[in-house]
Amino acid sequence: MAMDMAEAETGQKISCLMTDAFLSFAxxxxxxxxxxxxxxxxxxxxxxxxxxxxxxxxxxxxxxxxHDGSNSGRDGTDVDQTLDVxxxxxxxxxxxxxxxxxPRDAKETLFSCIISIPPPSLPPSTEDVTGCLSWxxxxxxxSVAFISFxxxxxxxxxxxxxxxxxxxxxGIPFLWALRDSMSDCLPSGFLDRASTHGKVVPWAPQIQVxxxxxxxxxxxxxxxxxxxxxxxxxxxxxxxxxxIIVNARLIADEWRAGVRIDGGIFTKTGVLKSLxxxxxxxxxxxxxxxxxxxKELVWKASAPGGRASADFKTLVEKITSV
Length: 322
Description:
The protein has 322 residues and is an alpha/beta fold. The protein has a domain at 132-302: Glycogen Phosphorylase B (Rossmann fold). It has helices at residues 2-10, 25-33, 49-61, 132-137, 157-170, 190-194, 206-211, 224-232, 245-254, 268-279, 282-302, 307-320; strands at residues 17-20, 37-40, 82-83, 91-92, 144-148, 174-177, 198-201, 215-220, 237-239, 258-260. The strands form three sheets. Strands 7-6-5-8-9-10 form a six-stranded parallel β-sheet, sandwiched between helices. A two-stranded parallel ribbon has the order 1-2. One of its GO terms (molecular function) is UDP-glycosyltransferase activity. This is Anthocyanidin 3-O-glucosyltransferase. Belongs to the UDP-glycosyltransferase family. InterPro entries: UDP_glucos_trans (IPR002213). It comes from Salix viminalis (Common osier).
């Protein structure tokens, strides 16, 4: 076993296991070794609520399940109950299998404590190989739209064309990080025509770009890292929901720190409308202000004496006490 080899090589006994929460098998490994398991939840935390609700449902409804054709549950209760969980359609308890909701005497949730710690970021690169930062230095404050869709998501060619046309017509300065594999999707002649007010690069140092004083708005696919970095720098977002719908809803509807593209896909009209709303309209003023408010909350929480600092101290104490 790899862990046995690690202990033999280091001479240290493994007393705690900290892993990505998606590596769920690590919980079983920790249980077999009789050591604590600390799963790290990387995505935006609202999705963690699905797991928290799962435990609530199990605790509340488990003994109501029956599978013998009778009208009462294991505990004698009426099984004609429904689960009213925010975001889900109404579920009937009797329709769920026994494996979904084990008896109430089953093992309780493994997560006895949930603490919030800002994800560590990579140290800023000292290189500007694509010239992004030097180009931004020549732009006016709060004037540039930054566009990036991460390293995984692939945008349909039709949407890239619509977005490019909107950027060209708007005249708004823009910096677009577009992978080489997708650059062929740009309209013919776009790079030449837009070169007067825009820059397209295969990669951009996103953390430094979002922190630059010239950035006014971030057009994003709403990946977790992009959301964190945008909020930490107080940059409002224009969200395309083709990849991560719930994150886009969180940004636009709950945090009110951005807007969703009409119809959920890039169209020339939709992009122009969103840019105008965020940068020119009164509603956009509120969105920009809200993004700054969230930035202040993040920095306050991560400062000495803040919530995140206290939670990190709690984490260290839990690890060192095992």
